[in-house]
Amino acid sequence: xxGYIIRRTAYxxxxxxxxxxxxxxxxxxxxxxxxxxxxxxxxxxxTPAAIQSWEQDHGYDKPLIYNDxxxxxxxxxxxxxxxxxxxxxxxxxxxxxxxxxxxRDIRTRMWPSLAFAVPTFVVxxxxxxxxxxxxxFFRTTYIDAWGVVxxxxxMSISQLFYIIxxxxxxxxxxxxxxxxxxxxxxxxxxFLALPIxxxxxxxxxxxxxxxxTIFLEEYGRDYVRTARxxxxxxxxxxxxxxxxxxxxxxxxxxxxxxxxxxLGSLIMESFFGIPGxxxxxxxxxxxxxxxxxxxxxxxxxxxxxIGLLLTDISYTLVDPRVRLS
Length: 325
Prior knowledge:
Structural class: mainly alpha
Number of helices: 16
Strand content: under 5%
Radius of gyration: 25 Å
CATH architecture of the largest domain: Orthogonal Bundle
Shape: globular
Number of strands: 0
Largest sheet: none
Helix content: over 70%
């Protein structure tokens, strides 16, 4: 087991390095340090002296990759690549181009993101699995057929429709919940109730169809026919055998959600005014703040790799055959 975990962890290192280097390259292909300075200072009436001063104050006056003006390790360390990108591997995010402490912003904004994302994730998973099991139990009946139709309809509607419709109906007309905003503590529930409900409802279609496909595939296997031939009830076959053996693909499907538990939802946080990491990332992209974008991309890739590692470990617990691979 330990060797298996070490191998999977070693695979993550080149992935994180590659993502970081690609992010750095793409950003500076589109923007030069002077372009970043103009964006922060204001595009109009910016003098070359002001641009040069801003670059010096924010560390953008150095060469991108290799500095031939210094000696020793300074050739590589006294560069924008090392100062602005490679330090994130030590979780030194530095300051944003606007001068804010990125680490402090992340620690502050992660809690609203988690307060929204964790309930949405847990309730969504339970709801989707429950509906999928119900459709499988009533397979080849009208309940199953109309359930699939309903799932397709839900999938076909944009999440923006649910957001705008929910804000108008529940917030403006019925005055049940605030349209947007956020406060900490127990009062956050009234601000998060609508976003969580929309997040769950908008994901029912895709999630239910995905789990229904998994469970139907398990229903066609030999062990199910054997269990049914032994006289087990359909309920017991469904919950004891089909659900248990469907855990592997379910675990795989939930991995992609793990980064959003920390980073939040970009669209939902922006529309509902939740001061989480999703809206933080959107604001950084709009302002072309490379320091924040770099930090958020690194965190997203790190969390995704951690999710993959946890999935691999859980595979060994659910299916011991994986340990031999």
